[in-house]
């Protein structure tokens, strides 16, 4: 049975989530009618640092399991043996909180022309939450796993997280991250923004990988496996298809290509992979990105004798945002915005720009640059450009529509009125 098949159960599942979340999110269907995902309804979500649970996007590939915290366990396998109850996770280890900007690897897929498969996201599949839980490194040390030596290039151990979400197609949702990243800052989260982890976000326990694309943040974790390689087909001690979500899907490649499996890769920096360090790169570390939150383009702007504040968010995964530029004339001229607010590794920064707005129609763009000097490209290329696109200030069109970060498709058109509001 194909993994990409319609499922009536998914429609009922999403209807229940929508009822619980209210109007903070809106549904989007994929082309195969298998998935319904939920993205932020309003652009104003991206004018604030913390994303409310009600506005945080929701995306998962299989069905939500009927999980009960009292009976849920996490198996430790491969080069580590043991198991954890949720009581262990909550009480036997340190309790920490991390701020993490989670972005779906398919965010911006709907901006590709021609369309690629799956959910046609615009910009709405990103959010920042505070996740509370247990450091993965604490669990692994307790069970005898030695932390990788950063100076030892031969240490290619990986941690594979496996979700307990059931699949009619028999695929196992498994994702691998370097063991060094797991020790560095990953947690097993059981709370989101100070509340119990919602079912659609992974209740009772989810892996949080700060600064990395959402697909790596495995929900409903039921197994952690220490391995000498990434997950490959047949590498898990269980039936089903093991490597689809690591080695087939969520790979960046031109159309007509079937990526080969890799046991390991030289870099987990997604942008380095796109530049050529990895053949058919994986979606790990977030690419540099920005979004304007206000003005939102929905209602006319009235200056009221004061400058209009353009406000938004910018992020760059494991790297820091160095600069955000704003254009209020569709890219003809640019000016630096001010970065402000909380500054945590793996979480977005707020930016603002005071705009002396003249009456009329304006197109506002934002573009961010990370600490390594990598700036968002202007547009998404056509399907035949591939890596040559980078030289033309374009993000390469790819068959899955993954990891897009072009700035022009995310601009906002704003109407500026002529007169101040009479508040008398």
- Topology, number of strands: 22
CATH topology of the domain at 289-416: Immunoglobulin-like
Measured as a percent range, the helix fraction is 10-25%
Work out the strand percent.
25-35%
CATH uppermost class of the domain at 289-416: Mainly Beta
* Reported CATH architecture of the domain at 289-416: Sandwich
Q: Helices and strands, in N-to-C order?
A: HEEEEHEEHEEHEEEEHHEEEEEEEEEE
Q: What gyration radius follows from the Cα positions, in whole Å?
A: 22 Å
Report low-confidence residues grouped into runs of 5 or more. none
Biggest sheet layout: 5 strands, mixed
Principal-axes shape call:
globular
Mean pLDDT: 92
Distance between the termini: 67 Å
Strand order of the largest sheet: 4-3-12-7-8
Q: Look at the helices and sheets and give the structural class.
A: mainly beta
Distinct helical segment count: 6
What would you say this structure looks like, in words?
- This protein is mainly beta and 424 residues long.
- The chain has a domain at 289-416: Sandwich (Immunoglobulin-like).
- The protein contains 6 helices and 22 strands.
- It has a 5-stranded mixed beta sheet with strand order 4-3-12-7-8.
- A hairpin with a 2-residue loop joins strand 9 (187-192) and strand 10.
- The longest helix has 14 residues, at 8-21.
- The mean pLDDT is 92.
């Amino acid at each position: 049975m194909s993994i990409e098949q319609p499922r009536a159960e998914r429609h009922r599942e999403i209807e229940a989530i929508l009822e619980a979340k209210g109007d903070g999110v809106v549904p989007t269907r994929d082309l195969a009618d298998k998935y319904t995902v939920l993205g932020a309804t309003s652009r104003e979500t991206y004018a604030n640092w913390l994303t409310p649970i009600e506005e945080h996007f929701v995306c998962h590939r299989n069905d939500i399991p009927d999980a009960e915290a009292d009976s849920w366990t996490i198996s430790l396998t491969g080069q580590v043996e043991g198991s954890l109850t949720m009581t262990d996770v909550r009480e036997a280890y340190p309790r920490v909180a991390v701020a993490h900007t989670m972005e779906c690897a398919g965010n911006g897929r709907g901006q590709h022309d021609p369309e690629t498969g799956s959910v046609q996201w615009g910009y709405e599949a990103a959010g920042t939450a505070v996740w509370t839980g247990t450091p993965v490194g604490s669990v692994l040390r307790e069970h005898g796993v030695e932390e990788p030596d950063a100076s030892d290039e031969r240490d290619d151990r990986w941690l594979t997280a496996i979700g307990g979400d059931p699949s009619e197609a028999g695929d196992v949702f498994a994702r691998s991250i370097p063991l060094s990243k797991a020790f560095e800052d990953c947690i097993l989260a059981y709370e989101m923004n100070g509340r119990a982890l919602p079912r659609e976000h992974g209740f009772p326990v989810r892996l949080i990988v700060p600064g990395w694309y959402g697909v790596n943040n495995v929900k409903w974790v039921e197994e952690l496996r220490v391995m000498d390689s990434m997950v490959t087909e047949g590498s898990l001690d269980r039936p089903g298809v093991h490597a689809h979500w690591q080695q087939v899907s969520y790979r960046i490649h031109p159309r007509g290509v079937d990526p080969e499996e890799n046991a390991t890769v030289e870099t987990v920096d997604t942008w380095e992979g796109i530049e050529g360090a990895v053949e058919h790169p994986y979606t790990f570390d977030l690419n540099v990105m920005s979004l304007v939150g206000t003005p939102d383009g929905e209602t006319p702007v009235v200056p009221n004798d004061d400058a209009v504040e353009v406000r938004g968010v910018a992020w760059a995964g494991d790297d820091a945002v160095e600069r955000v530029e704003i254009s209020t004339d569709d890219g003809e001229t640019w000016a630096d915005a001010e970065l402000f607010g909380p500054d945590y590794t793996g979480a977005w920064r707020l930016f603002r720009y005071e705009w002396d707005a003249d009456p009329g129609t304006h197109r506002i763009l934002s573009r961010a640059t990370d600490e390594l000097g990598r700036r968002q490209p202007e547009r998404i290329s056509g399907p035949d450009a591939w890596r040559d696109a980078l030289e033309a200030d374009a993000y390469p069109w790819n068959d899955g529509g993954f990891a897009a970060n072009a700035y022009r498709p995310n601009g906002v058109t704003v109407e500026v009125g002529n007169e101040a509001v009479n508040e008398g």
